[in-house]
Design goal:
Helix 6 packs across helix 8, helix 6 (137-154) packs across helix 11 and helix 12 crosses helix 14. Strands 1-7-6-5-4-2-3 form a seven-stranded mixed sheet, with helices on both faces. The N and C termini lie far apart (62 Å). The chain is globular and about 60 Å long. Helix content is 42%, strand content 12%. It is built from 14 helices and eleven strands. The chain is α/β, with parallel strands linked by helices. Helix 8 links the parallel strand 2 and strand 3 (198-200). It binds pyridoxal-5'-phosphate.
Length: 458
């Protein structure tokens, strides 16, 4: 059959990429124009053999590929790809199922329900909550906040889906001072306005202060939307969710959302669970599967306590869609989409309850190891309490940007720069199933070598 040769070639190419991950330079800067030139940028008049297309494409991409799913990529929060999740993701494309409507793929609709129930159980969230399989944390935040917008305005007798926001009794929005940019983006897209979100002061780890939230709410009348966070991107800090839930639940018309893109997975570890105490009291939760659960991009989960609010905000209505029951598209902003629940199911099946907890605990232990080893370098100051998988540090008496640049060019590992309390800092995130203690030691050595080299040069 026509597919076999090219799929076998894809498996070979994927295999050699994956085998290269542990030792290839992680991500060295390249010239964008040179990469475009390698892609034969003139639109071809005639077609080509699929195997030849693959071979040329991969050869052209090679210098610009970054080993983000390798064991020593510590930038942003990227996760990795578990073998079972990756292979299942290939099948998602091969099966080409569209879960928008249950009749298009009863199999995928069933997988969504099973995987959703597993996620809720693992994270300790209410079993009756709805789970929309969206593209990532950004759209999870958007979908949850759309449900919030619906519910808060319906409570005021306003039908926002029909009438929009002009003239509406718009809720007051409060976010932590360290809110993730994507939650703000969601507020923008939903018409709340980025600038109108009031910022609640945070403590030294970036956690929203419940006393400051209570103080901010004293003057506020009408409906309120509060966006809390589990997992600050620099420090990994989790907002004090129980105390925040106390403040929010003392009000009548209020919705508490938790952006837990990576941090929410800590709830799957019995040892870390106390950090997230009270998380189940929120009204909605955004979490990524493509970060700490280590499924391939793109997969996030929009979880809403009251499924009716999610359906009201997000379902598509069209005469030909009225097929009875709830279609998966009722819980996401998209209509057609990938069967992205399949890799989630496969990852959870491959890991099991204990495997997820172990993955979380292992990444946290490796972050602790990195912090301890970094702290032995006299020029390094670790800035955060390493409660999860993030390490934030400052380099003293050397140009931080130059150190980060040196590390990235060296290619042993990849760390990114950030700003913390107005000063440059470096962040290191451990979220990959394949990272070992040896990878951490090697990477810390690369960082301390870079500090020494930059100090000598400066
Ligand atoms: C990564 C992240 C997001 C955005 O997730 P995407 O999957 O990149 O859309 C949102 N919030 C937090 C806290 C994150 O770490």
């Amino acid at each position: 059959m026509g597919h076999d040769d090219v799929l076998h070639r894809a498996a070979e190419l994927a295999g050699s990429w994956l085998r290269s991950l542990p030792e290839r330079p992680v991500g060295v800067p390249v010239e964008p124009q040179a990469l475009r030139d390698r892609l034969d940028p003139t639109l071809p008049d005639d077609g080509a053999d699929p195997v030849a297309v693959l071979d040329r494409l991969v050869a052209a991409l090679e210098p610009g590929l970054v080993a983000t799913s390798g064991p020593r990529y510590f930038g942003f929060v990227t996760g990795g790809t578990l073998p079972a999740a990756l292979a299942t993701d290939w099948l998602v494309s091969a099966f080409d199922q569209n879960p928008a409507v249950a009749v298009l793929s009863p199999a995928v609709a069933a997988v969504e329900q099973v995987a959703a129930a597993w996620v809720l159980e693992l994270l300790g969230l209410p079993a009756g909550a709805s789970v929309g399989f969206v593209t990532g944390g950004q759209m999870a935040n958007f979908s949850c906040l759309a449900a919030a917008r619906h519910a808060l305005l319906a409570g005021e007798g306003w039908d926002v889906e029909a009438d929009g926001l002009a003239g509406a009794p718009v809720p007051t929005v409060l976010v932590g001072d360290h809110v993730h940019a994507t939650a703000v983006q969601a507020l923008r897209l939903l018409g709340f306005g980025a600038r109108r979100a009031r910022r609640v002061p945070a403590d030294d780890q970036g956690r929203m202060r419940p006393d400051a939230l209570a103080a901010a709410l004293v003057e506020v009348e009408g409906p309120v939307l509060v966006c809390a966070q589990a997992g600050e991107v620099n420090t990994g800090a989790v907002d004090p969710l129980d105390a925040i839930a106390d403040v929010v639940s003392a009000r009548e018309r209020a919705w508490l959302h938790v952006d837990g893109a990576f941090g929410l997975w800590a709830a799957a570890s019995p040892g870390r669970r106390p950090l997230l105490a009270g998380v189940e009291r929120a009204d909605s939760w955004a979490v990524d599967a493509h970060k700490w659960l280590n499924v391939p991009y793109d997969c996030g989960l929009a979880i809403v306590r009251d499924p009716a609010a999610a359906v009201a905000a997000l379902s598509v209505t069209a005469s030909y869609l009225a097929v009875g029951g709830r279609d998966p598209s009722a819980l996401t902003p998209e209509s057609s989409r990938r069967a992205r629940a399949l890799p989630v199911y496969a990852a959870l099946r491959a890991l099991g309850r204990h495997g997820v907890a172990e993955l979380v605990d292992r990444c946290c232990a490796l972050a602790r190891q990195a912090a301890d080893e970094l702290a032995r370098c006299p020029q390094v100051r670790v800035l955060n309490d390493v409660v999860l998988n993030q390490v934030l540090f400052r380099v003293e008496d050397a140009d931080t940007a130059a150190v980060v640049d040196h590390v990235q060019r060296d290619g042993t590992c990849w760390v990114g720069g950030t700003t913390w309390h107005g000063r440059p800092a470096v962040r290191l995130s451990v979220s990959n199933w394949s990272t070992t203690p040896g990878d951490i030691s090697r990477s810390v050595a690369a960082v301390t070598d870079a500090i020494a080299a930059v100090s000598r040069a400066g």
